[in-house]
Task: inverse folding
């Protein structure tokens, strides 16, 4: 029998493809970080049960470890947790929750169902810890802050990256993430329409959702109708991690015009040492204290001011690089392991012949 230190139940839809997961890229980041600490995790990918209401009846049969880590995302929140709770109680397991999409109502409700049976629940911001403590004061001791991990990428010189992408303008913006109408990439297109010195990169894997495809097609039509083909660049439908490094390296700023808060795509920019312009959501204000994030109520003027102020961009970029060193996947994994009370061991030696 294989010896694992804990089991990770990872909820995702794989709508972006099996090898690209914004929320928990265990193959590329998490498992290697664990391995370097001499720790092994059994990963249960739940994509095959995504449509089932009672998946835990099957999932628990695969769990052999005492410690269980569950990613509580919007996809997990709609499931029936009774089989998991029964298993945790009867087998005397330790359950830990990595809360994702904390503002999702279903996630909040699901958390309330399982907190009684949970050792610790990890949230990504102090604000969320305060929010959940107010919602569930009887469980206040179970909430811990574990910031969203940053995916550090390989950083190329801007000149090299722009040459690869055939960019001719002095300034470059990037909108990164799955193209969806709520992300308002169309606004950025309109802003730069008359900025002849600025190019826009629209990059990210396309989800297999009809409305998202229609939105992407509408962006491409706008570009064609306004003859912006030489200044607006779209990535392929399934972008790779290597592509991401090139696209971010070419950019001066990442723009996040979404009216709400989400951290996944923003951390990619931070991991590439970029300044990020976001909306004025309070969560971004908390994050901006440490990372190179500029919350704004007037995107257009803020973007233009930053493009024209390289000193301020550089200052924000240094903040992002500093934050990425503190909360990259390796450092984040070390913190998680400590909170799980798993001793760090020497990794096994590998012979190279």
Result:
């Amino acid at each position: 029998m294989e010896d694992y230190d804990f089991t990770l139940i990872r909820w995702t839809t794989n709508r972006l493809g099996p090898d690209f997961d914004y929320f928990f890229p265990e193959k590329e980041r998490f498992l290697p970080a664990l391995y370097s600490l001499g720790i092994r995790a059994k990963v249960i990918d739940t994509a095959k049960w995504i449509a089932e209401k009672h998946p835990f009846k099957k999932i628990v049969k695969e769990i052999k470890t005492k410690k269980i880590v569950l990613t509580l995302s919007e996809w997990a929140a709609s499931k029936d947790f009774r089989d998991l709770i029964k298993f945790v109680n009867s087998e005397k397991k330790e359950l830990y929750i990595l809360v994702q999409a904390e503002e999702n109502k279903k996630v909040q409700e699901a958390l309330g169902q399982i907190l009684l049976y949970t050792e610790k629940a990890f949230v990504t911001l102090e604000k969320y810890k305060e929010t959940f403590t107010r919602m569930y004061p009887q469980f206040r001791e179970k909430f811990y802050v574990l910031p969203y991990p940053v995916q550090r990428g390989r950083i190329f010189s801007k000149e090299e990256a722009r040459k690869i992408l055939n960019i001719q303008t002095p300034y470059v913006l990037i909108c990164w993430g799955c193209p969806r109408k709520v992300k308002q990439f169309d606004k950025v297109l309109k802003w730069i329409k008359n900025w002849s010195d600025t190019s826009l990169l629209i990059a990210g894997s396309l989800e297999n959702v009809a409305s998202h495809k229609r939105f992407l097609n509408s962006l491409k039509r706008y570009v064609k109708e306004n003859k912006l083909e030489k200044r607006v660049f779209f990535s392929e439908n399934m972008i790779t991690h290597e592509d991401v490094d090139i696209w971010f390296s070419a950019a001066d700023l990442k723009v996040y015009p979404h009216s709400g808060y989400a951290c996944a795509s923003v951390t990619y920019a931070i991991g590439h040492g970029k300044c990020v312009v976001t909306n004025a959501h309070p969560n971004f204000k908390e994050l901006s204290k440490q990372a190179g994030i500029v919350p704004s109520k007037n995107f257009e003027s803020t973007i233009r001011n930053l493009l024209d102020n390289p000193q301020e961009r550089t200052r924000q970029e240094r903040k992002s690089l500093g934050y990425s060193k503190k909360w990259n996947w390796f450092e984040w994994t070390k913190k998680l392991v400590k909170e799980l009370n798993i001793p760090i061991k020497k990794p096994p030696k590998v012979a190279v012949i």
Observations:
- The radius of gyration is 21 Å.
- Confidence is low (pLDDT under 50) at residues 14-23.
- The CA atoms of residues 174 and 254 lie 5 Å apart.
